[in-house]
Amino acid sequence: MMNKKIYWTALRFIVPLSIIGFVVVFLTYNKPHKDFDSSQPEFTVGAKDLIIFYQDNADNANNTYLDKILLITGAVTDLGASSIILNNGIVCTLDPSQVITDKIKSGNVISIKGRCIGYDDLLEEIRIDHSFIMKNPQP
Description:
alpha/beta; 5-stranded mixed beta barrel; elongated
């Protein structure tokens, strides 16, 4: 008799907790990704100013810009297959939906929106991912 009471009491707690745990795991696993394309930039900054701010005090700059959406305007200094380097110090990794057109060349001034993921002390570069080209240069 005592064993049945313990069994049913334990079952009353285990089943609801299991269901709650399953729902939490299911909702967390199926959470939609952040849409960087439609998100508004939290800061608008020039490439030179951002580089100087990071070189002066990287910790303070990380507190301000890390994991934030930035709109950066600067001169293109190098082009890769899926990346653009602005002012020899900001590496912008483009979103897979973005394509580098023939209009974008070294020396052009463009605006790029993306998420700041930090400063690389070794290479002295600021890293931006999920980047979108906002203003294409005129031919």
